[in-house]
Amino acid sequence: MKRRALISVADKSGALELGQTLVALGWEILSSSGTAKMFRDAGVPVVEVSDLTKFPHILGGRVKTLHPLVFGGILARRDLEADVKDMQDHGIAGIDMVAVNLYPFEKTARSGAVLDALIENIDIGGVALIRAAAKNYRYVAVMTDPADYAPVLEELKAEGDVTLETRRRLALRAFDATARYDATIGDGLRRELGEKPGEDSVTLSLVRTQELRYGENPHQRAGVYLPPLADSPVTQLAGKELSYNNLLDLDAAMRATAMLQSDVGAVVIKHTTPCGMAIGKTVAEAYDRAFACDSLSAFGGVVGVTRHIDLETAGAISKHFTEVLLCPSIDDAALKLLTEKRKNLRVMTWKGGRVFDKQMVSTWCGLLMQDDELAPLPDQKKGHWIGAPRPDLWDDLVLAWKVAAVSKSNAVAMVKDGEAVGIGMGFCSRVFAVEFAARQAGERGQGAVMASDAFFPFPDGVEKAAAAGIAAIIQPGGSVRDEEVAARAQELGVSMFISGHRTFRH
């Protein structure tokens, strides 16, 4: 008995060659609708599914292949006596290969189609055929990607059959394909209907859009993965390919510049934490001030700015070795200057936006997920002062709070006249963070302000800040020793604003 292949594809790439080769190898082709027409027009013998089932396509083509003569032929276990008897009793012939790809829901969703068009591009029969064939992979080869055709045909020619190992591999690819398809439909309909994903169960369908050279270290494989309907929020205009570490630092730069949007601001990121952050009258001034905070650490960093880059700013940035530059836009002349002076500099534009609204971290205990929101800005009406209020220092206090909020915990930031002068981040002890920031600030710490991303558990951090010349501190409060810390700040003449919001960043 001839072996049979059911070929029904929305993407017809390679399908004609597949059918022609199978017929030449003695197979019979089953097909429906447009795929069957393609074969007939090319002179390839084909049996219409409706001729096999003796049942016409109905409901405008919504029901074509959903029939026992089709699914019985795919799902039958050829070595099980009861299945073989059912096949004989009902005149069911086996189907040994299924080549199916699905209605282009993703393409339709990306085109901005309305709800009715989205719904009509949800494939039903195709998904059922794929799942049936994949379930019965011991007897059926299933192909969901035109890239599978050539290797399978080569194996057929060489071996006379598709090996069990290949059928297993194809089955797993098929289940991945239908899972991704269903997740894309859920995402697309959710967007169109304005519904948010549930909290108790999260379905993630991710496609690798870029293979990276390696991860944080050369022994780790890495890539960039996006949901099928998502696009990268950044565009690369120049420079080398982004690395895994570049992308981590770029994320920090995006968060920092998002917090600086109300000002002409700049940030220098190193190892996912700021080593400089400032505002200025021009982007070039803001960049120079940010760079000055820790010019040693800024070497090879990632720079983010909040405004358009002109030739002056490009000239300032080009003086130093920078890995990545993030900006909302850039002059052609400025881009030309940067690419000539720093050929490897990766220049990225970002108009805002992000891929996910949840922050996800994979741990050995499982996937941690939290709302990905920037902390609310300090508000003098919602917090309270300890000691003499210093509204004259408020702008610097808010900037210091922003710097601390995007720095690795434990973190403190010292700011004076719109620029960070000392940043202590990533310390296990808050006292060590203050000491580091004070040492970095030096004389610039006199009359500066300081922000802490969490409360002071003891007065010692405040004492170190006062010794460095800090005039005012902003911190969330919440320690059991808040009264003791507050009393010590008043004794030292340091004004303190309690914001009520912790900004840990682990």
TrEMBL record:
Keyword Transferase: yes or no?
yes
GO terms of biological process kind: 'de novo' IMP biosynthetic process
Q: What CDD domains does UniProt report for this protein, alphabetically?
A: IMPCH
> What family name appears in the similarity comment?
Belongs to the PurH family.
Gene Ontology CC annotations of this record = cytosol
Transmembrane stretches, by residue range? none
> What is its pathway?
Purine metabolism; IMP biosynthesis via de novo pathway; IMP from 5-formamido-1-(5-phospho-D-ribosyl)imidazole-4-carboxamide: step 1/1; Purine metabolism; IMP biosynthesis via de novo pathway; 5-formamido-1-(5-phospho-D-ribosyl)imidazole-4-carboxamide from 5-amino-1-(5-phospho-D-ribosyl)imidazole-4-carboxamide (10-formyl THF route): step 1/1
For this entry, the protein name equals Bifunctional purine biosynthesis protein PurH
Keywords in alphabetical order: Hydrolase, Multifunctional enzyme, Purine biosynthesis, Transferase
Q: What is its EC number?
A: 2.1.2.3, 3.5.4.10
Catalytic activity from the UniProt record: IMP + H2O = 5-formamido-1-(5-phospho-D-ribosyl)imidazole-4-carboxamide; (6R)-10-formyltetrahydrofolate + 5-amino-1-(5-phospho-beta-D-ribosyl)imidazole-4-carboxamide = 5-formamido-1-(5-phospho-D-ribosyl)imidazole-4-carboxamide + (6S)-5,6,7,8-tetrahydrofolate
MF term (GO), any: IMP cyclohydrolase activity
Q: Taxonomic lineage of this organism?
A: Bacteria, Thermotogati, Synergistota, Synergistia, Synergistales
Which species does the entry assign this protein to? Pyramidobacter porci
Highest taxon of the source?
Bacteria
Gene name of the record: purH
> What free text does the record give on domains?
The IMP cyclohydrolase activity resides in the N-terminal region.
Q: Which NCBIfam families match?
A: PRK00881.1, purH
